[in-house]
Amino acid sequence: MSERHEEADVVEKVRDGWAVRYPDLDLRPVDVIGRTVRIAALALARLDRDLASSGITRTEFDVLGALARSDTPLRASEVTSVTGISGASTTKNVERLVAMGLVERHRLERDGRVVLLSLTDEGRALVDEQFPRRIEAERRMLDGLDDAEIATLTELLRRVTRNVEGRG
Question: Whole-structure pTM over 0.85, yes or no?
Answer without folding.
Answer: no
